[in-house]
Design a protein that fits this description.
The protein is built from 24 helices and no strands. By secondary structure, it is an all-alpha fold. Helix 7 (151-183) packs antiparallel against helix 16 (366-396) and helix 15 packs parallel to helix 17. The radius of gyration is 22 Å and the shape is globular. The chain starts with a helix and ends in a 5-residue tail after the last helix.
């Protein structure tokens, strides 16, 4: 029997017996995905420990640093996540993840050769495009390796790579920067300084990890749920169609091909987002940062991103009504992903600005930050996401909206430790409070991800994941870190005020999650019926 046949037989047996033991290979494959996600966030989060060095060398302000970490990455990560999510629904997910890993690792290494803010921004855009392949592929794979009863747990374990990688990045970055600058105080080979060497140190290993990823077996899509889905004979056609629909200015032509009314709606959206971006630029005063134009770049990037997503969603409605109805057309799905977006809004800001704040305001050494902020953050995130995932599965067995209680906890529980961390003068107190803030916010991710996956059909999971990450990126990552940096830059570099300003997301998140609790039970129980009503053949 071939490996593929054996995999098919195992999946069939598992779907036929809901309580059957999960094969050991599923746990092994999940472990590989965790390593990939760890590297994903090492490459992304290392900017935190390098922020003050980049600020000094390139002559930029906190608003640019927030823009670089958040918006410049988030917009391209989100936009390319849409067509790549579609490709994950139709092509080999293992192969797609390996290609993306190669791209983002190479672009991280190229960040180490940046000499200007513009060069660094371009490199980080490339990282965003590459990383957009990871989670749509991983979420879809995990949903085909694990039965529904364990999906929140499996997704939580995968998501732990986010926090472990983010914490390790501080430790690695600190060690490389201090060792490099000590060995080459005037700059080393090729004139590289410590923060540039750190990018190379975390980028190059990813090229080797991509080979390991390629060794994984591709599971049968939907088999574990009793809904086996045949392979798409033309997987790249859908990818190119989605790419064409989401990248301006081709979005206008794509709308015109659907008819005059679609074109008018698209142009109205373009005008609306352009006006909104202009208004935000006008009402947000420029900071005293040394790098001009960041405020306008911020809203220009986000305006393009939001318009592109709007164009894509309207095109999706015309091309694939069942998927549109179960995602963009579902109030339950939208309240779940936007509710978690508010958690991400705060957590991204706190996790990114924690190291620069402690180094700048509390006098912490880089090496100490690696051990006392980064390493505990990895433990806190791991504990939070695993315990949150298990609790979400436990509560789901008792209440259909049970997972959302965990998401709400992740929104509200970090408030006290954040207030303590960014108002104390004691470094040890800052470390302890940051630990609990990280752990509490991490608890929401597995529950939110599993909740969104439960609201769509198996063939839609990759695209649903990409849509889920639109909220975490264009709302959480695209706005949270920039807001904290902008508030800091316009208030004499007061990072404490900047980070705490992101608590404005809490009341918005509460409204969304309360609505989700009322909507999700009925929506989850009617997925197949609603898909059929929209024309799905299931």
């Amino acid at each position: 029997m071939s490996q593929t046949d054996a995999s098919n037989e195992t999946a069939t047996q598992t779907s036929a017996q809901p309580d059957a033991k999960v094969p050991a290979y599923s746990w092994y494959a999940l472990g590989v995905l965790v390593v990939v996600y760890m590297l994903n966030f090492i490459d992304r989060q290392i900017l935190s420990i390098l922020a003050n060095d980049i600020k000094a060398d390139l002559g930029v302000g906190d608003d640019y640093l927030g823009f670089l970490y958040g918006t410049a990455f988030a917009v391209f990560y989100a936009l390319f996540g849409i067509p790549l999510g579609k490709l994950a629904d139709s092509w080999k997910r293992v192969r797609l993840m390996a290609i993306g890993l190669t791209l983002w690792s190479a672009m991280t290494a190229l960040s180490g050769f940046a000499k200007t803010a513009a060069g660094l921004t371009v490199a980080r855009i490339g990282v965003g495009v590459g990383e957009a392949t990871a989670s749509p592929s991983a979420y879809s794979l995990i949903s085909d390796w694990f039965p529904a009863r364990l999906r929140a747990t499996a997704l939580a374990i995968y998501s732990s790579g986010l926090y472990v990688g983010g914490g390790i990045s501080l430790l690695i970055g600190a060690m490389v920067v201090e060792a490099w600058n000590e060995a080459y105080p005037g700059g080393g080979p090729l004139g590289l300084v410590g923060w540039q060497a750190a990018f190379l140190a975390v980028g190059i290993p990813g090229l080797l990890l991509a080979i390991w990823v390629l060794s994984l077996r591709e599971p049968v899509r939907g088999e574990i749920d009793g809904l086996p889905t045949p392979e798409d004979p033309e997987p790249f056609r859908g990818f190119l169609r989605e790419l064409f629909q989401v990248i301006p200015p081709f979005t206008i032509l794509g709308a015109a091909m659907r008819g005059t009314s679609a074109l008018m709606v698209n142009l109205a959206g373009l005008l609306g987002f352009a006006v909104l971006a202009w208004v935000m630029t006008q009402i947000a005063p420029a900071s005293a940062a040394l790098l001009p134009g960041i405020v306008s770049d911020q809203w220009l990037f986000l305006g393009i991103g939001y318009y592109a997503v709007f164009s894509w969603a309207m095109g999706l409605k015309a091309r694939d009504l069942p998927t549109f109805r179960l995602t963009w057309g579902s109030p339950a799905f939208l309240t779940v992903i936007l509710g978690y977006g508010m958690v991400a809004f705060m957590s991204y800001a706190g996790s990114y600005w924690g190291a620069p704040y402690a180094e700048r305001a509390l006098g912490a050494a880089k090496s100490d930050l690696g051990w006392f902020l980064g390493a505990p953050a990895a433990v806190a995130g791991f504990l939070g996401v695993i315990l949150g995932g298990r609790l979400a599965d436990f509560l789901l067995e008792r209440r259909p909206e049970g997972r959302l209680y965990v998401v709400m906890f992740g929104l509200v529980a970090p408030i006290p430790p954040l207030l303590i961390a960014y108002t104390t003068d004691a470094l040890v107190t800052f470390y302890i409070a940051s630990f609990f803030a990280n752990m509490f916010s991490a608890s929401a991710l597995g529950a939110a991800a599993a909740s969104s996956q439960a609201l769509v059909l198996p063939r839609m999971r990759g695209l649903a994941t990409a849509t889920f990450f639109l909220s975490t990126t264009l709302v959480g990552l695209g706005l949270g870190p920039f807001m904290a940096g902008y508030v800091s830059a316009t208030n004499a570099d007061d990072l404490s005020f900047g980070v705490l300003s992101t608590l404005v997301a809490v009341p918005i998140g509460l409204v969304l999650l309360i609505a989700a609790m009322k909507l999700v039970p009925a929506a989850g129980a009617s997925v197949v019926e609603r898909a059929r009503a929209a024309g799905e053949n299931v």
